[in-house]
Amino acid sequence: MIFKTIIVVLLLVVVFSLGQALFYLVSAKSDSDKLLRSLTWRIGLSVFIFILLLIGQAVGLIQPHGLS
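Structure (tokenized):
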């Protein structure tokens, strides 16, 4: 259960980072360094979540299931 909670928290951080990048993109001062840093964090966290999901499935912490 804690593994799934960690994944959900990391996904929320990714959404927050995406919102932060949107704010920097539309703000009047348009700080490209902050925008780039925010998007880099989002991509890095997304890759980290994907790797965690692969490890979780390999170890047996999460189980795939059908859609039926």
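The radius of gyration is 16 Å. Residues 2-19+32-58 form one domain.
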